[in-house]
Structure formats: structure tokens, C-alpha cells
Amino acid sequence: MSFTSLVFYLALAIAALMFYLLPSRWRVPYLLAISCAFYATWSPKYLALLAATVVGVYWIGRKLHDTQTETGKKTWLIGGLILTLAPLVVFKVQAVYVGWLAPVGLSYYTFKLISYIVEIYWDDTAVHNNFVEFACFASFGPQMLSGPIQRGYEFFPQLKDVRSGKTDFAQIESGLSLIIGGLMMKMIVGDQLAQFVTLIDASPGTYRRSVLLVSTLTYAAQLYADFAGYTNIAIGIGRIFGIDSPPNFNGPFSAANIQDFWRRWHMSLTRWLTDYVFMPVRMSTRRLGNAGLVLSIVLNLLLIGIWHGLTWTFATFGLVQGIFMGVSALTLKGRNDFFARAPSSVRKLRYLIGVLATYLLWSFSQVFFQARTMGFAVQRLKQLAGTAPAGSLGFGDLRTDISASLYLCLPLALYLGAGAPGSQWLARPIIRFVPNWVIYGCALLILSALTTSSGHSFVYGQF
Amino acid sequence: MIRSEIESKLTNVFRETFNQPELQLSPSLTADDVEGWDSLSHINLIVAVEQEFGFSFATREVRSMKNVGDLIELVAKKVG
């Protein structure tokens, strides 16, 4: 059931009601049951694979904890990594040659399970000795479709409150407002921008360079609205059941350099890769000076690229980002030191240029991320550079509803992506005078009008 | 090596690594409190500590440190 369907929210309301009516000692098993039921609405065939992997990892976690020798620990670690990575690798590889759809959430639950095993390898107090709670962590419904990727040590303590029957109304209300906000972001902003981008992508050769440029720059904003919208919904649903999830976004378009960008974009994935890939690799290459640093960075970002899919376009996306990040890692400190002595107006200007440059670099790399093939990506870059012919259709030739959506939604998406600066201050008069239920009611009315017309699925659901 | 000597050497290492001559260490100090201390520069700090005291960290040990206090304890344990 999709997060944008009415049926889903009806089912969610019933599920939440039952959750709070149940005696508290049944709430965790109930969460596991509804997570499995939710999973079954997407991939009933693969529920068995999820179950088998969860059982296997739980068992390996216990063995890893009990083993005393370093060799023994390494063996169980490798076993756990093979068990969790094998299905992911198989499905990612066959996607290139055969084209079966991967089980829903495979990437996301695999990463949660790997983090669990590696944490025990590093510190065996990370083991969790309650299978139902562990299974709940691994299969937690709201995080299954596209994350956020949570750690066990952040999830398990929250189950204590769930077991104790605690009902946090403030948390539930914040969950509801996140869901509504997320839906609005996805359906009012993301989907509208997608209409424009998809239209241009269908026949890029017929549009002028200026239209192609705006479309290229719009994609990042569309992707943000879609993915951040999804993330807010996922976090919101979790909060309704008393579980808080880690954030995925923190105003990425306000970043003035690529390092800061990755600390604000898809944060749970960046954090995961930093802790479980970058850090161990960096430790192995630490005696190689700057070469080791750049190697670790490029590898890390290449993995981010191919995690999305084993294609040349995703790999190029990762490689390009790796190069940008490598250059940044080698030069940012020097640049910061240089500007530290500059007057405040110069530093402000530098910040603005940095924000613009970061967005442009991100959009450039997204040409590869978005393109169906390398040919498409190269053709788009040539058209943007003027070395391949562009068409003659301009903004005036767009259907009014599409151009209107673009002019309204692009600035809004960029504003939201920059962290919505000043929004608390802007919202204060509204919040003071308009009751919450009126705000929610209006939002729900707008959304229900859109539900029937929007058929778009979430971009990140395919990874 | 006595604790105060360890802390003094570590303070110098931090000051040099992060180019902050006035930096003062405290047990609760973390990367959030020091400008320029992030996942990229963290390993520079680790290498500098290793070179200063003449030992190597395992990845597990680096991962286990949540703040400067943990680092001081670990260094004290490793220099014996």
C-alpha cells in the first residue's frame, strides 16, 4: 500500500487505534505483525526472504557476541555480511541483465542488519537478546520502503516506552503534522515538478537550451521534494506508534560546499556509509596520506552511486561526486583559512557563491543519476554546452498548467530544500490565530483533491 | 606515563591538528564542539595521536571513543 493512497491512511488509522487499545505488553509483537502485514502488501513472495535473513542475522549476532577469539569474531562477521549482502548483490546484478523487481525495502533492511552485526563485532554489548524486538527493528514498516536507515542502538531503547504503555500525544501530533507536510511536499511540489521534468526528458531535442538548463536544475529540487516528502511521512508514521526515526535531510540546498551537502542529504545513508565503509577503509589507508584520503572518499561515493543501481550512469554519478568531494577535502581547509581574515561582507558573498556552486555541481552530477543511459547523459551535457543542437520550443510553448506549476513549485522546493529559513517566524502569526485543526483540515482537503490525480510513486522506492 | 603528561601531549596534538592554539581539552569534548573536526579530519587526529605516542589504534577502538575522555582513557591504557 502506497503512502499516497487513501486506503493506506484508513488502514493506518485502524492500526493505530488498535495499537493504543492493546495491553502494552502486546504492542511490540503487534508492531512486528503489522510491519509484516504491510510488507506483504508489497512483496508477499519475499516476506520469507526477509524472515529468513532476520532469523539468520539474529542467530549470527548471538554467536558473534559469545565468541571470544578475534578469529572467531571475524568468521561470524564475514558470515553475517555474506548472509545479508548476498540477496542484495544478486538482485542488484540481475536487475541489469534480467530485470526482476527487487524485494521492497531490500537495500534498507539489509543496511540495518549489517549495521547490527558490525556494531556487535566492534562492541559485543550491542547484541539484542529479544528476538521479537529484533525482528521489529529489522522489519519496521514505516522505514521499510525507503528508510531512514536506523541503528539498533537508537531503536531498541524506544521499545521500552512502547512496552511500558507510554502514550506521548505531542509525539503523535508531531507525527500527524509530519505526514501531512510530507504528503504536501511530495504531491503538491514534487509531483508537479516531475511533470515538467518528465515532459522535457521525453523529447529533449525539441526544447531550447534555456528550457533544458532549467529542467536540469529542477530535477534536484524535484528529487528533494519527493524524497524529503517520503521521509517526513515515514518518520511521521513511526511517531504515531511511539518510534522516532533519524532524519534524512537538513536543508541540503543551504550547503556552501559539497562536504556539508552530504551531511544534509540522505543523512541516514551518508552516516551509514561513513561509519561502516569510509571509516574502516580510511583506517586502512591512513598511512597513505592524501592519496589514502582521496581513495577512501572516491570509493565511498562510488558505492553511494552504485547502491542506487549497477549501471554506468549511477557509477559515474558516484565517481563525479567522489572527485568533487576529494577536491573539497584537499582544499576546503585552505580556502576557509584564506577567507577567515576577510571582511564579513566578503564571507557572506563567499557563502552565497558556495551555495550556488554546490547546487550547480550537484545538478551536474544528477544528469548522470537521472539519465537512462550514458548516451542520454552525454547528449544532455552536450546540449547544455551548446555542442549538440537543441530545439526551438521555449517556456512560452509549455502548457499553462505545467509552466504555472514550475514557476510556483520550483522556488518553493528550493526554499524548502534550503531548510525553509524564517518559516518559524512566518508561521507564528498563523499558528497564533488559526487553530491547528483548521490548518490540518485545509491541508487534508487539498491533499484529497490531489490523491485522485496523482499517480506518481516515490523515486527512492526503486532503490 | 602519568595522566597529566598524556593530557598535555594530547592537547598539543589537538591544537596542531585543528589549527587552534587556544584549544582546551575536557573529558566531555566531542567533534561537535571543535570547528573542523569531522569524519574527514578525524583520522588525521588519530594518526597524529598514534605518531605522538608510538602505538596503533584498531578500528574497533577508534569507533568506541565517544568523547575526549574516552580517548584519554584509551591512550592511558595503551601506553601502560
What does this structure look like?
The complex is a heterodimer of chains A (463) and B (80). Chain A contains 19 helices and no strands. Chain A folds into two domains: 162 residues, no CATH class; 291 residues, no CATH class. The radius of gyration of chain A is 23 Å and the shape is globular. Chain A is 74% helix and 0% strand. Chain A starts with 5 loop residues before the first helix and ends in a 12-residue tail after the last helix. Chain B has one domain: ACP-like (Non-ribosomal Peptide Synthetase Peptidyl Carrier Protein, Chain A, Orthogonal Bundle). Chain B has four helices and no strands. The chains are: A mainly alpha (463), B mainly alpha (80). Chains A and B meet through helix 12 and helix 14 of A and helix 2 and helix 3 of B.
At a glance:
The complex is a heterodimer of chains A (463) and B (80). Chain A has helices at residues 6-21, 27-42, 47-66, 70-97, 106-122, 131-139, 141-144, 152-163, 169-202, 209-240, 258-262, 267-284, 289-308, 312-340, 344-370, 374-385, 400-417, 423-433, 436-451.
Task: Summarize the SSE layout with pairings.
The complex is a heterodimer of chains A (463) and B (80).
Chain A: H1 6-21, H2 27-42, H3 47-66, H4 70-97, H5 106-122, H6 131-139, H7 141-144, H8 152-163, H9 169-202, H10 209-240, H11 258-262, H12 267-284, H13 289-308, H14 312-340, H15 344-370, H16 374-385, H17 400-417, H18 423-433, H19 436-451
Helix pairs in contact in A: 2-6, 3-4, 3-5, 3-6, 4-5, 9-10, 9-17, 9-19, 10-15, 10-17, 12-13, 13-14, 14-15, 15-16
Chain B: H1 3-17, H2 39-53, H3 59-64, H4 68-79
